[in-house]
Amino acid sequence: MAAKFLGQFLLERGVITAPQLLAAIEAQRASNPLLGELAVRKGWLDAAQARRIQQRQRVEDRRFGDIALEMGALDQDRLDALLEAQKAGRKMIGQVLVEQGVLDARRLDAEIALHRADQERARHALESVVAEHPVGELAGHAIDLCARMFPRMLGSQCLPAEVLTPDALADRPCVAHVRIEGDRPFGIGLATDLAGARALACALLGITADLCDDALALDALGEMVNVLMGYLVRDVIADDDVAYRALPPDMSVPATTLAADRTRSLAIALDSQLGTFVLLVDRPA
Hints:
With 285 residues, this protein is an alpha+beta fold. The chain has helices at 6-12, 18-31, 35-42, 47-60, 64-71, 76-89, 93-99, 105-132, 136-154, 194-205, 214-237, 255-258; strands at 158-163, 174-182, 186-192, 244-246, 265-272, 275-282.
């Protein structure tokens, strides 16, 4: 059983069609701009300032507004106004579907209740597998990290869906994996298809699809894994003051190979608005 976003849940139940879901996702995305985008629109930041703050977010794992205040780029009144505007404009996918006439409010309420029950069952199933696995604690940190960093760095929610078997990874040829050597070695990686890698690159680098080739997509995937690795080291290793060394991202090992030893590795599907990614967490023998 896999956790699903509401839109995917409705699609699989036959309540909405794929074109209706795509139209709703586009409308929802337009209703929920990042704080930096709002600040630039209002003329309170220029594009270069917004990019510098976003770059610091990647390094420091802090909120956009906190960094902007510290830099003196925004004052508290303007930050509060931006947060209020963002909150007021944000729409949930169900609200968009009702506004577009795809569902009525009563049917939406009924489907949301079913979706919540489905989510709860899926969450328990995932948590039970992770909790009992030898790398479960490490994987739990990595899942929480993705849930924080995907919205901040990519403007996309990240939903841990299910644990995958190695044979389910063959259709994820784009892989970036970082090995940490030292007293407590481990590995962390992301795998996806080419469309997912391209979407991640465009979101991470703030570029349009026509500017993103395959090489840049893989580089961006590696950069994202490097960021995740840095925070995972901080959360899991640094407090223990043990020695470690991070190797450069490796793009050459297939996800099926990285996840082959199921006693030492976990492959966890992560659903997002950018596509489906697989979080790879392992400890060497």
